[in-house]
Amino acid sequence: MTLALLDTNTYLRLAKRIRPLLGVEFGQKPYVLRVLKDVEDEVRRNRTLQFKFPWFDDEDFGAERDAAQIRLKAEERTLLDNTQSVMRGHVLSDVDRYTTGGRQPPSDTDCRVLAFGQVREAIVVTDDLGMHLLAEDFEIPIWHGWQLLAKMRTAKVVSNELVREIYRALEANDDLTRSWLEAKHTEFVRIFGPLPK
Amino acid sequence: MQKTLHSESIRAALASKGWDQKKLAEAVGVSGQAVTNWMKGEDFPRPATLLKLASILSLGFEQLVCADLASQPVIAFRKKGGAKTTEEHILRARAMGAMLKPLVKYLPARQSLRTQISDTSREYDQLQATVSAVRSKLGVGQAAVLLYEHLINQFVENDAVIVPVMWGEKKRHENALHIHLPVEKVTFIYLNLDTHLEDFKFWMAHELAHVYTPDLAGKEEGEDFADAFAGALLFPKELAHQAYVAANTKRSPSGVISALHTFAKEHVISLFSVFTEVSKYAAAMGLPQLKASEQDVHAVRNSVRGELVSATLFRPLPPDPKTYIASAHSVFQSLFFTALQAMLRDRETGSGYVQQVLSVALPDAQAVYNELTR
Questions:
Q1: Distance, in angstroms, between B58 CA and closest chain A CA?
Q2: Are B32 and B103 within one domain?
Q3: Could you tell me if B188 and B97 lie in one domain?
Q4: How many CB atoms lie within 10 A of CB A194?
Q5: B39 with B12, same domain?
Q6: CB-based contact B93:B179 (threshold 8 Å)
Q7: Hey, is B164 helix, strand or coil?
C-alpha cells in the first residue's frame, strides 16, 4: 500500500466532492490518502479559509480526518526534523530558483510535508510549484492534484461527471491553477476535449 | 560560493557511531573518494545524498553544512519589554533575510557614500557630541523637535529600506527588525505600525543607530548603543537641561511628571524617554536627581499610552491593501512595495513569497499580492 499525502490546498479542493476521500484504498497499487495534522492547524489558524470552506468543520469531515491521522514514533520525529531542516536549508541557500514561473519558496511547513513524504515513503500531492521543484531536487515522488484525480478516475473512484463538477467548482472559486488548466485539455481531453483554438 | 560540508561535526557523528569514512561511503552508496572530497571541501553532495547523510548521521542542516558567515544576513531586534530572543527567532529572521535577497536587484542603485559613526562610546559627553554632530548634519537645532521626516530621510540616504508592517500590538517578540544583507549592502528595517505613537520615534532612532553602526548590528553592545543613541538624539543635553530646570522647581512627584510630560508631548516621545535623559543629565552634571522615581513615571505612562501608529495612519482599521501599500511610499518614502511589485510581475513569483517576506498571515499576504499583481 502506498501512502499519498495531501497538502492543505489539495485537501480543500477535493475533500468536499469526493466522499469518502481519506483512508480508502484505491487502484491496483493500491494507494491510500492521508492528511497531516498541519492541515488541521493551518485551517484553524486562518479565518479566511474557515469562511471559504465552512464544511471543513462538519462532524463527518472532522471524523474522517481524525481516523486518517498519521502517528510518528520518536525516532521518526527526529528523522523528520532533520529532513525538514535539510530541505529548508537547501531552499534558503538559493531562494532565487524558487521565485520564478509561478513558484514561491517552500515554507517551513511545506518542507515538513515533503520531509514527511520522504520519511514515510509517501507521495506528496500538491499544486505548489515551488514544492515540486524542491521534491525534484531531492528526488521525492510528488503529484499535482489533477494527477491524483486522474488516478482516482482510472481506478473508477471518481466518474467523468465528478471530474467535470470539480473543475466547475474550481473555476467558480477562481481556484483553477495553471497546471489544472493545462491538464483539462491534456489528461482529461476525453472529458473536456482539446484546447479551443 | 561553493557550499561545503561541516567536516568537524561529521567526524564527531562518525566517532559516536564508531564508524570511519569508508563505512559512511558504503552506507550512503558512494565511493570513498567522494566522501574524501566532501570532507576536504572540494565537492558537495547532491541534495538527495545530503538527505541520506542527514538521516544516517542524525544531523540537521546547520550541523551538516558550513554556514557562509560572510553572506549571512545580520539581524538585530527591537524586542518587546522582557521578551527573550530564542534560536528560533534568529533562524526565522535569517530566513526572512535569505528571502529578501532576490528582491534586492529590483531596488534602485545603492549609494556609495553613507554616514557611519565611529565613536560608539555611551559615556555622557562623548555620546552628546555624537548626537550633536548628527543633529547638525540633519540641519536640526540642538533644542528643536526632531521630526519623523528627518529620520526617514536618513534611512533613504543610507540604503535602508523601511518595511512598514502590522504585526499586532502583542503577538510578536519584536517591534522592529533590522536585517542587513552584507554582500548586497542593503538593510531592511521592519517597523511594526501596531505600536504606540510615543514609542515609535524612539524605535526609528534606535534603528537609525544600527544603520550608522553596521559593524555593531546583531551584537549586544550594538543594542545598548542604539538605545542610548536614540534617547540622546531625540532629547539631547540642551533639552534635558531645560526639562531639568522646569521639573526641579516642582515639589511633588506629580508636579515633576507633569513638567516632564509637557516636553514629552511636544517632542512626541514617551515620558519615560524624557525622564531617562533628564536623569542622565543630572547624574553627568553632578546635580540632585528629580523628586520622581522610575516607578512613578511607569505608573503614569501606563495610564496614558495614547494611540497606535496604525490608528493614526489608517482609519478605519485595517486598511485596504491599496492604502497600506501607498502609505509605505508616501509616509515612509519606502520603495519596498515598488520593488516587490516589479519582482512579482517580472519573475511571476507566487503569493507565498509575499507571505514569507512580510511575515504575515496568508490571507493578508494574498490581499497584498492581488493588489500588486492586478
A1: 7
A2: no
A3: yes
A4: 8
A5: yes
A6: yes
A7: strand
B3 close to A (CB below 8 A): yes
Q: What is the pTM of this model?
A: 0.91
- The question of ipTM being above 0.90 is answered as no
Strand order of the β-sheet with B186-192 is B74-79, B174-181, B186-192, B160-165
Domain A2-146 has CATH 3.40.50.150: no
Q: Could you read off the pLDDT of A95-126 as tens digits, one per residue?
A: 999 999 999 999 998 999 999 999 999 999 99
pLDDT tens track for B88-107: 899 999 999 999 999 999 99
CB contact A45 to B (< 8 Å): yes
How is residue B140 written as a grid cell? Answer: 536640526
CA gyration radius for chain A? 17
DSSP H or E run through A34? strand A31-35
Residue B198 vs residues B119, B310, B332: alpha-carbon distances, Å: 28, 13, 17
Considering the domain boundaries, does residue B121 fall inside one? no
CA of A5: how far to CAs of A22, A86, B55, in Å?
10, 20, 21
User: pLDDT, tens digit, for every residue of B120-179?
Assistant: 999 999 999 999 999 999 999 999 999 999 999 999 999 999 999 999 887 677 888 999
**Domain of residue B46, residue span:** 7-64
Q: Is residue B125 part of a domain?
A: no
Last residue of a domain, one of B22, B45, B64: B64
Tell me the C-alpha distance between B229 and B127, whole Å: 7
The answer for A 74-113 residues in CB contact with B (under 8 A) is 78-79, 81-83, 85-90, 92-93, 95-96, 99-105, 107-108
Same-domain check for residues B140 and B285: no
In a domain? residue B309? no
Query: For the stretch A23-40, what's the b/e string if a residue is b when 16 or more beta carbons lie within 10 angstroms of its beta carbon?
Result: ebebeeeebbbbbbeebb
- The alpha carbon of residue A126 and the mean position of all alpha carbons in its chain are separated, in whole angstroms, by 3
CB pairs under 8 A between A and B: 97
Instruction: Look at residue B367 and tell me if it is in a domain.
Output: yes
